[in-house]
Amino acid sequence: MHPALSLFPNRAGTGVVALLFLATLWMLPLSTSLAETGQAVSVQLNKLETDNDSCRAYLVLENRSPAAFESLRLDVVIFDGDGVIARRLAVDAAPLPTGKTSVRVFPIAGLACADIGRLLLNDVIACQDASGERRDCLEQMETDSIAGVPFIK
Q: Three-class SS of residue 19?
């Protein structure tokens, strides 16, 4: 190999290159999100229940993250069967302690369950833990549905 192309052109530079390599490896786990490590907040659409001419939605939230959320407000958009936005709701999901599974029920007024095509977790409106306001909450959310209607992010 040509000396100019070598990673280790002389022994004096070997330690610096090795340190840079080790520093890069050390930083890799820090760039992994909580969702990728399984330490996310799971938000499952568990059930849709008819309530007269409206619908009631049941969300099951499982907090596998290291943070206990004092404030957690979700921006949920509801689409009809044709893909047209039918409603937009703010769902309060707090408090949500670490390691806790909770159920939140919210009404979808004036919309029959049969008319719902899918739900979208559009954003996280408010998210706060003991350290204060957080900006990374949407990335830490995982959505799922067993209600026969997709719940996506």
A: helix
Q: Which residues are 23's β-sheet partners?
A: none
d(CA 125, CA 76): 10
110 in the Ramachandran plot: left (φ > 0), alpha (ψ -120 to 50) or beta? Answer: left
Enclosing domain of residue 126 = 41-152
Per the domain annotation, does 107 fall within a domain? yes
Shared domain for 5 and 56, answered yes or no, is no
Q: What is the pLDDT of residues 22-57, one digit of tens each?
A: 444 344 443 344 445 567 999 999 999 999 999 999
Percentage helix, strand, coil, to 5, in the chain?
Answer: 20, 45, 35
